[in-house]
Amino acid sequence: AGDQITPANYDLISTEGESVTLSCTYDTSSDNIDLHWYRHYPNQAPQFILWKGARSDTTEYIPDKRYKSTTSKTSTKLIIQQLILSDTALYYCTTD
Questions:
Q1: Residue 22 exposure: Cα atoms within 13 Å on the Cβ side
Q2: How much is the pTM?
Q3: What is the pLDDT of residues 53-80, one digit of tens each?
Q4: Which residues have C-beta within 8 Å of that of residue 54, sequence separation ≥ 6?
Q5: Which long-range contacts (CB under 8 A, 24 or more apart) does 87-92 make?
Q6: Which of 2, 24, 30, 94 is deepest in the core (most CB within 10 A)?
Q7: What are phi and psi of 33, to 5 degrees?
Q8: Quick one: how far is CA 15 from the chain centroid?
Q9: What mean pLDDT do residues 19-24 have?
Q10: How does DSSP assign the chain, residue by residue?
Q11: C-alpha distances in angstroms, 54 versus 20, 35, 46, 93?
Q12: What topology is assigned to 4-95 in CATH?
């Protein structure tokens, strides 16, 4: 079987200025994996937010400090802090 990644949240509602946490679980045989998050607005290409290594990979690239990410052996979380209206979008998590 190949790698699998599954969202843990489908619809989240929050308030401007608050924080929200999105989660995905994943299953892969690799011990060196990067997990990527993207934001998608209607009729636009997905926009890269960040990537963070998991398992034996401890590297990360998070250009916007409003975003944070945590990873475990089977899941990743995206934390969006100080929400603004333009954070309203569809979010994707992917493996490398």
A1: 26
A2: 0.88
A3: 999 888 999 999 999 999 999 999 999 9
A4: 33, 34, 35, 71, 72, 73, 76
A5: 87/20, 87/39, 89/39, 89/40, 89/41, 90/39, 90/40, 90/41, 91/22, 91/37, 91/38, 91/39, 91/40, 91/49, 92/37, 92/38, 92/39, 92/40, 92/46
A6: 24
A7: -135, 145
A8: 19
A9: 95
A10: ---EEEES-S-----TTS-EEEEEEEE-S-SEEEEEEEEE-TTS--EEEEEEEEET---EE-SSTTEEEEE-SSEEEEEE-S--GGG-SEEEEEE-
A11: 21, 7, 22, 13
A12: Immunoglobulin-like (2.60.40)
Q: Radius of gyration of the chain from Cα atoms?
A: 13
**Where in the chain are the domains?**
4-95
